[in-house]
Design a protein that fits this description.
The complex is a heterodimer of chains A (about 550) and B (about 170). Chain A is mostly beta strands and about 550 residues long. Chain A has a domain at about 80-245 and about 280-300. Chain A has helices spanning about 1-20, 180, 310-315, 415-420, and strands spanning about 20-35, 50-60, 65-75, 85-95, 100-110, 110, 120, 120-125, 130, 130-140, 145-160, 160-165, 170-180, 190-205, 215-230, 230-240, 255-265, 270-280, 325-335, 345-360, 385-400, 405-415, 430-440, 445-460, 470-480, 485-490, 505-515, 515-525, 530, 535-540, 540-550. In chain A, a hairpin with a 4-residue loop joins strand 21 and strand 22. The two termini of chain A are about 35 Å apart. Chain B has helices spanning about 1-20, 65-85, 105-110, 125-130, 160-170; strands at about 35-40, 45, 55-60, 90-95, 115-120, 135-140, 145-150. Chain B is about 40% helix and about 20% strand. With about 170 residues, chain B is α/β, with parallel strands linked by helices. Classes of the chains: A mainly beta (about 550), B alpha/beta (about 170).
Amino acid sequence: MKKYYAFFALLLTCQIAHSQGNLTGNMETVFQYLNEDTVINAKQPIQKGLINSYMNVFYTQGNFKAGMRFESYLPRIQGYPNRFDGTGLGMRYVGYQNEFIDVTLGTFYEQFGSGLALRTYEDRNLGYDNLLDGMRVIIRPGKGFVVKGVYGTQRLSFQQGQIVHGAGLVRGVDGEVHLNEALKSLKEASLDVVLGASFVSKFQEDDNPEWVLPQNVGAYGARAKLTYGNFYADAEYIQKEADPSSDNQYIYNYGHAAIFNLRYTQKGLGILLSGKSVDNMSFRSDRTKDLQDVLINFLPSLNKTHTYNLVATLYPYATQPMGEVAYQADLLYTFKKGSQLGGKYGTTIGLNFSTTYRPEQTLNGIDLNDSSRVVYHTTAFQRSDSLYWQDINFNITKKFNKKWSGILSYYDININNDVVKVSDAKGIIHARIAVLEGTYKLNTHHALRWELQGMWVQRNEQGINDKGNWATALVEYTISPGWFFSAMNQYNYGNDDLSKRVNYPIVTCGYIKDATRLTVSYGRQRAGLFCVGGVCRPVPANNGLMINLTHSF
Amino acid sequence: MTKLISYLFVCAVALNAFAQEPTHESTSLLKQLPSVKLVDMKGKAVNTDQLTTGGPVIISFWATWCAPCKKELNTIHEVYEDWVEETGVTLIAVAIDDEKTKSQVPVYVNGKAWDYTVLMDPNWDFKRAMGVNNVPHTFLVDKNGNIVYSHNNYAPGDEEELYHELLKLSEK
């Protein structure tokens, strides 16, 4: 009998290969061979070699779609969350879609509005996957209208090659309308309006002997986007019902998340002002979980994502879901070609400011002795004086001639380490970082790029300056389109602990052919934080060989 | 085992038979643009399988936090007018910024005075469907929606290869 199945499977494969269907996908493999290095406290795993792999395969034929992802962690690479283990199917779905309806059964990723109520997504570099496994329907009843409904359980973990689901059930519905597409009379209107609303509910059985826990918890809210000429504004507000959990120590307060963006843009200029207020907004499909487990919503941190390694990985800010009030201003301006400051090619300057505070919590109208377990009162956007984060930075990008171009960047960062805990240091860490980058084009295909980075950490009131000052130098030689070679050294020259004034040299070479990319690195990597969207994972120090292969098909 | 081999053989023969058949569309084996619904910077809906109605397109996946991506798009920006004039190409810059940095996308695009069509892919639906591992990843798509070239990196000079492929396409 088994053989018949195999035969049918083969036949089906033949069939798929020859139909007009479309097969796409991609794969990635990361391999590490690690050495023991007592100087930087890097451990050698007992297996010595570690490997992460995955492959996505997507198939569409006409209105039919199907997809799957095989994942393999034998075992997972260093620093990767322990939610990834074994080899097996980590995602699979079938579906049907046309212009009116889109149905998916199985696993799916979805975002309502800006994600404050619901966002399931994956980031394989980060080791994050909170997909929903169940059913999703998207209906487009008319031009400009979209209605989505989701129902499912979340991926909590992947053990011995199998998805482990979270304890709770997630249900949600979201509607959005782009008025200018939906209403003929507004088609030519100069004001462009998008309106939306979401409702998300989770169910988890009350198995707690101590409290009477709500088994169904809802989160709901609305959003709007307005564009008028060069002006743009958007806002979203989501309220969450009482959701006692281990995150909030089982209090019965309501939570909220609000976000707004105001923008003015014209050719050569962009200005943005954003604000965010969050209180008691950790929303998980299992109230007992923590870290990055089964989060239903997404609370972005409000600051720029930096790319140079010292500023990106030593003191990044991670969202505080229990509460924060944040603001950001961002400006980009290009001096025109031919102007005095623009020169022959134009000069671009970027300015960015972001700040985050603890929200103000009061006891107005709160009786701590009653049985409500509502323990404080907050008002949206009301902040206290307790600073969590501040970042002032600017950069200047200039092309001098056909061969030379450069970027100068400066960052002034204050991070409250008692809250964000990027290291063991107490109090506020104040770091200043300067980076100079240059590119020299030797000819059409050959180029040399270099970076010089310095980080100066100020001693705070307690006399603490964390790990002290750092310097980084990098050179990279590229031969388009196939090759690159780079060498980098980071030096912790200002560490108070003389034994930790260590060099971290690493060399990398890469080969790229079309959609295939192979990189090989060897050397030391310092401990740091790898962050995406305000979600971070610590990467321990390591020493050894790393091979990375990616391919798309 | 022998059974399996014979099945494989049957399959191979079947494959061969199909391959011998004159295909009415010689490009059918090429990867086609998938259909994903995205929005532009204003919130207007765009279906990705309709992107090539106006001719060939370059689809470039980028993010505000990706230095080589910005370098690539700024380099092409300097010659974009010429490319459009010569080949009728449209460049579609797909921003994979999530909610953290999504609002900075129009600031960068306008601040740099880009003339590209910009689409937002905050939850990576199009990125996933296109099999993009990391950015920058640039695709060249012909007017029938067939993906004819892709490159996953940017180094100075890569734009020359892209231009060369684009010229080959417009000569067809």
